[in-house]
Amino acid sequence: MTHSENPSISIDSNHSINKLSAILETEAPREPKPQKSSRHLDILWLCLMILTIINAAIAEQAEPSFLVTLIICSIIVLKARLVIDYFMELKGASPYIYHLMNAYFYVFPVLALFVWLYPEQLVELIQLVP
User: Fold this and answer.
1) Domain boundaries, the chain
2) pTM, entire model
3) How many helices (H) and strands (E) does the chain have?
4) Which residues contact 80 (CB under 8 A, 6 or more apart)?
């Protein structure tokens, strides 16, 4: 017996589409997100610019040390969180995308700290020729 001979197994694509449409229509409508005020975004943008200038000043004038690297990495994470949350508006996006972006901006500063702490070991680890 084939699928077309057995009515209980037949697949009706129109029926499936109609069923999906009915399910989507019965979902509660999403409430619009409150818009950030222009002034609020301007203040956040100003904070981002100040943090960028601080990072540049530290990088140009401070003697290289673990503490300097830690401060710069911390500012990078803070700036990334501000951009992700307020300018990219990923809080309302898929949790997968939101957490992936957050992880990206936490992982790379940690990697920068590892480069500072263990440079010789990393060179040995990534050498192509033994």
Assistant:
1) 36-126
2) 0.62
3) 5, 0
4) 102, 105
